[in-house]
Amino acid sequence: MRVTISRKAHFNAAHRLHRKDWTSEKNDLVFGKCNNPNFHGHNYGLTVSVTGKIDPETGFVLDVKVLADIILEEVEIPFDHKNLNLDVPEFQDLNPTAENIAVVIWNKIRKRIQSDFDLEVVLNETDRNFVTYKGE
């Protein structure tokens, strides 16, 4: 029997969608106002879900407190109130689109979750725009 547990979190961060190898005109055409040279921010919502077998001793798939601590350490502390382009090493050469942010978060959390568990990350950039990543 496999069960999914989920934990919600949030962080606030600024970013700029921009490719250094493109002209200003192309960046403006593709990324529009998200290419603002002074950056812009979002109040990101995050849902992390772990699916696995229930441990017969504890009754947990994974202790939600453990999952909360992983999210705090891997996402909230390094991303919250940061400029993703300037302050977060993973985005020094990676455009911080919602898609790329979700993949980075998944990779950071994946390292801390048992390999026999499935992991899903849902990142809400706005109330209407969100990205889901489940790994490859």
Automatic annotation (TrEMBL):
Cofactor, how bound (note): Binds 1 zinc ion per subunit.
Keyword flag Metal-binding: yes
Assigned keywords, A-Z: Lyase, Metal-binding, Queuosine biosynthesis, Zinc
GO MF term list: 6-carboxytetrahydropterin synthase activity; metal ion binding
Tagged with keyword Metal-binding: yes
Known cofactor(s): Zn(2+)
Enzyme Commission number(s) of this protein: 4.-.-.-
InterPro entries according to UniProt: 6-PTP_synth/QueD, 6-PTP_synth/QueD_sf
Example of a GO biological process term: tRNA queuosine(34) biosynthetic process
Catalytic site positions: C34, H81, E125
UniProt pathway annotation: Purine metabolism; 7-cyano-7-deazaguanine biosynthesis
Catalysed reactions, semicolon-separated: 7,8-dihydroneopterin 3'-triphosphate + H2O = 6-carboxy-5,6,7,8-tetrahydropterin + triphosphate + acetaldehyde + 2 H(+)
SUPFAM superfamilies associated with the record: Tetrahydrobiopterin biosynthesis enzymes-like (SSF55620)
Sequence positions that bind Zn(2+): H15, H40, H42
PANTHER family: 6-PYRUVOYL TETRAHYDROBIOPTERIN SYNTHASE (PTHR12589:SF7), PYRUVOYL TETRAHYDROBIOPTERIN SYNTHASE (PTHR12589)
Family membership noted in the UniProt record: Belongs to the PTPS family. QueD subfamily.
Record-given protein name: 6-carboxy-5,6,7,8-tetrahydropterin synthase
UniProt organism field: Flavobacterium hydrophilum
